Structure formats: structure tokens, C-alpha cells
């Protein structure tokens, strides 16, 4: 039997080092490094809050599941860097200096379930801004003092959305036709906005999924100032869909009289024309009969003359 050579001490050290490295290898979240002034753990969480960051952190682990960049001075979310994080499910961007977001910002974040954009400087939300976020369950977008416009279809494709909070912004109106169609939506935060309670935004005030209802009040028109949305909902429904007034009834009566008169006159004219036509036809028939009788009489007389010439 052949005897194998005894391994050297150097070989044993290499084998031991290999085994040790394999046992303590860092998680995928750490293999790509960790941004400066951020903390990364083996639970795929990257914590960058309260670090006075003015730019979006670079060198983020590609396997990051939770990213917290709140309470900084970040003014932009770069789509290219953010969309590399395709496994991201939790993103907290609150209390920063964000001024705008677009559809491309979240283009590849299909697993994202929680998004917080509160306490920023957003001014408007455009069409399909959140369209790629097919798994989004909760969206907080409160306390943006300049946010005055949200496109009617901004959330049209977020079928999984359950909680939407747009409280304490500068919204005066919100078309919720697409929101009502969302099957999972159960909570809609509207409080703290200067709502204008009129017929143009009537649907907003009759919806039943309003949270913080006690603080959700009208800021205009003057006769509804300070009233809660829940209180003015039915009032607006009645005012915007009220019944016919006095002048409406007079108008319909006048129209009915005109139609009736026109029908009566038309029937009378038709009757007169029918009588005249009947008389004309009868007279023409009598004239034809008279001519036929005269012709018959002449024919008879001529025949009699030929048969009895002598007598004539």
C-alpha cells in the first residue's frame, strides 16, 4: 500500500485559513462595502440617518433590503444608483430637501412596500410617478409645504396600496377617482390641508376612508370655513345635485306649451289639407262621371240614327 506524504505545516495553515474565512464570510449586504457615515448590518439594513448628508450615499450594498436616509439634507434621488437596489422593500427619505421625483426615480423598485417622503420640499406629483411600485403598501407624503398638486393618475397602478397619507401639505383639491378604484386602499390621510369645499371636489368629501377626520376641515369658500369634511359632504351632495327650481318648471311648462301648440296647429293644417283634397277629388270624380254620361248619350243617339233613318 502506498503511503501518502504527511502534510506540511504550511499546508495546514492554508487549509485552516480557508475554512476560517468561509465560516466568517460577510453577508451579501456587506460584500459591496458600506457608505461612509452609514451603518450596515447583516440583516441587509443600511442606516444613514442624522448624518448631515447632502448627497445620496454611494457604494450601497446591492442586496440592501432597508435603506434609511432620513433627517439629512439630500436634495435628489439619483435614479441610476437607486434602481440598482432591486431588492429594496423599505425606503425612508423623510426630513430631507427633495424637490421633485419622477417615474424613473423608482423604475426598478418593484419589491418596495414602504416609502416615506414626508418633510421634504415636493411641489407636485406627476402622472405615473409611483407606477413602477407594484408592491407598494404604505406611502407617507406628509408635511411638504409646497405640495399643491397631485395628478389624478399618480396612484392608478398601485393596486397593493393600503395606506396613503398626504396630510399637512398645501392641497386645495384632490381627484380621488383613481383612488376609489384601488381594491386594497383602507386609509387615506387628508388632514391639515387648505381644502376648498365646492362642487368641483365633491367626491373627496363623501369618501368614507378618511383618517384624522377631526382635523380635516375646509379653508374655503368663506361660508364653509372651519367645517369638517365629514359635515359638509352631504351638504355639498345636496347643493351640487339639487332639484329643479321655480324658473326651471316655468321653462319646461313653456316648452311643453310650445310643443303642444305646434302639434295642434300642425294637426289642424293637415286636417284642412285633407278636407280640401277630399273635396277636390270628389269634384273631379263628379266631372268625370258627367262627361261619361254625356259621351254615352251621344253614342246612343248616333246609333239610333243609323238604325232608323226613315223615321228620322
UniProtKB/TrEMBL annotation:
<dbReference type="InterPro" id="IPR000483">
    <property type="entry name" value="Cys-rich_flank_reg_C"/>
</dbReference>
<dbReference type="GO" id="GO:0044325">
    <property type="term" value="F:transmembrane transporter binding"/>
</dbReference>
<keyword id="KW-0406">Ion transport</keyword>
<comment type="subunit">
    <text>Interacts with KCNMA1.</text>
</comment>
<dbReference type="GO" id="GO:0005249">
    <property type="term" value="F:voltage-gated potassium channel activity"/>
</dbReference>
<dbReference type="InterPro" id="IPR003591">
    <property type="entry name" value="Leu-rich_rpt_typical-subtyp"/>
</dbReference>
<keyword id="KW-0433">Leucine-rich repeat</keyword>
<keyword id="KW-0732">Signal</keyword>
<dbReference type="GO" id="GO:0099104">
    <property type="term" value="F:potassium channel activator activity"/>
</dbReference>
<keyword id="KW-1015">Disulfide bond</keyword>
<dbReference type="InterPro" id="IPR032675">
    <property type="entry name" value="LRR_dom_sf"/>
</dbReference>
<keyword id="KW-0812">Transmembrane</keyword>
<keyword id="KW-0472">Membrane</keyword>
<dbReference type="InterPro" id="IPR051432">
    <property type="entry name" value="KCNMA1_auxiliary"/>
</dbReference>
<keyword id="KW-1003">Cell membrane</keyword>
<dbReference type="GO" id="GO:0008076">
    <property type="term" value="C:voltage-gated potassium channel complex"/>
</dbReference>
<feature type="signal peptide">
    <location>
        <begin position="1"/>
        <end position="31"/>
    </location>
</feature>
<keyword id="KW-0677">Repeat</keyword>
<keyword id="KW-1133">Transmembrane helix</keyword>
<keyword id="KW-0813">Transport</keyword>
<dbReference type="InterPro" id="IPR001611">
    <property type="entry name" value="Leu-rich_rpt"/>
</dbReference>
<protein>
    <submittedName>
        <fullName>Si:dkey-52j6.3</fullName>
    </submittedName>
</protein>
<keyword id="KW-0407">Ion channel</keyword>
<feature type="domain" description="LRRCT">
    <location>
        <begin position="193"/>
        <end position="241"/>
    </location>
</feature>
<feature type="transmembrane region" description="Helical">
    <location>
        <begin position="249"/>
        <end position="277"/>
    </location>
</feature>
<dbReference type="Pfam" id="PF13855">
    <property type="entry name" value="LRR_8"/>
</dbReference>
Amino acid at each position: 500500500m502506498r503511503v501518502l506524504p504527511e502534510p506540511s505545516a504550511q499546508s495546514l495553515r492554508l487549509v485552516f485559513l480557508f475554512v476560517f474565512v468561509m465560516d466568517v464570510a460577510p453577508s451579501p449586504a456587506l460584500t459591496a462595502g458600506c457608505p461612509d457615515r452609514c451603518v450596515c448590518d447583516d440583516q441587509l439594513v443600511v442606516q444613514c440617518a442624522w448624518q448631515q448628508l447632502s448627497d445620496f450615499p454611494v457604494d450601497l450594498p446591492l442586496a440592501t433590503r432597508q435603506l434609511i436616509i432620513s433627517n439629512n439634507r439630500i436634495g435628489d434621488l439619483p435614479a441610476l444608483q437607486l434602481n440598482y437596489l432591486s431588492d429594496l422593500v423599505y425606503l425612508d427619505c423623510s426630513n430631507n430637501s427633495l424637490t421633485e421625483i419622477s417615474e424613473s426615480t423608482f423604475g426598478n423598485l418593484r419589491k418596495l412596500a414602504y416609502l416615506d417622503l414626508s418633510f421634504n420640499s415636493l411641489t407636485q406629483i406627476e402622472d405615473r410617478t409611483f407606477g413602477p411600485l407594484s408592491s407598494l403598501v404604505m406611502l407617507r407624503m406628509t408635511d411638504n409645504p409646497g405640495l399643491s398638486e397631485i395628478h389624478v393618475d399618480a396612484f392608478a397602478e398601485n393596486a397593493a396600496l393600503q395606506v396613503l397619507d398626504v396630510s399637512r401639505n398645501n392641497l386645495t383639491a384632490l381627484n380621488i377617482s383613481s383612488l376609489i378604484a384601488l381594491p386594497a386602499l383602507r386609509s387615506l390621510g387628508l388632514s391639515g390641508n387648505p381644502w376648498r369645499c365646492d362642487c368641483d371636489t365633491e367626491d373627496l368629501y363623501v369618501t368614507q376612508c378618511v383618517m384624522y377626520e377631526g382635523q380635516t376641515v375646509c379653508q374655503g369658500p368663506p361660508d364653509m370655513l372651519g367645517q369638517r369634511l365629514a359635515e359638509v359632504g352631504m351638504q355639498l351632495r345636496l347643493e351640487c345635485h339639487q332639484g329643479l327650481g321655480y324658473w326651471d318648471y316655468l321653462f319646461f311648462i313653456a316648452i311643453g306649451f310650445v310643443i303642444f301648440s305646434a302639434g295642434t296647429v300642425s294637426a289642424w293644417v293637415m286636417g284642412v289639407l285633407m278636407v280640401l283634397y277630399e273635396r277636390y277629388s270628389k269634384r273631379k270624380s263628379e266631372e268625370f262621371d258627367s262627361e261619361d254620361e254625356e259621351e254615352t248619350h251621344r253614342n246612343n243617339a248616333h246609333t239610333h240614327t243609323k238604325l232608323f233613318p226613315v223615321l228620322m
